[in-house]
Amino acid sequence: MTRSGAVPPALTSLVWCATAIAALLMLPWVRHADAEDSQPAGRLESGAASPGERFTPVGNGTVIDTQTHLMWSDHDNGSDISWPAAKRYAEEFRGGGFSDWRLPTTSELAELHRVGSEWKPACSPSGSGALRVVTPAAIHLSCYLLWSAEARGSEAALISMTYGVPGWGRQSISSLMRALPVRGSR
Q1: Domains assigned to the chain
Q2: Disulfide-capable partner of 16 in 34, 79, 141, 167 (CB 3.0 to 4.6 Å)?
């Protein structure tokens, strides 16, 4: 920490690099579904929701969080995307006929991870070392790294939905990055 309380850029870069390397190398501390789980990690079918489930599919490509009243897209953009393109994608998204979509904050994405269940995204390699992501069952991600709204200089905030760990990355990177639009209060 600096005297002003800010995290030095070198330390921020180190944290981002460590998170990215761990995700890419699938080190042993990557969270996996336990073989002893009584039910395998999985997803609900589109449009299905358990009674009283917090994240309820609306049926028009959107999901409502019944606690925060945020409306989420039920899917990410589906391919690698830089932060400027992700921001534009979210702002131009028209899910459910609404036009006030945006990128979520890091804390909003962290909440998705906190209350989610574990499953394997399409971008994860196969085999026993496959990465898992944690999101509510009604929200599908094609990969595990999501851009968030916060930006500073040439960097933007992101979160690993494998670990639930936020970090910072250059706005120009796109590999494994996705955009998940949200609408509602910040």
Answers
A1: 9-25+60-183 (3.10.100)
A2: 167
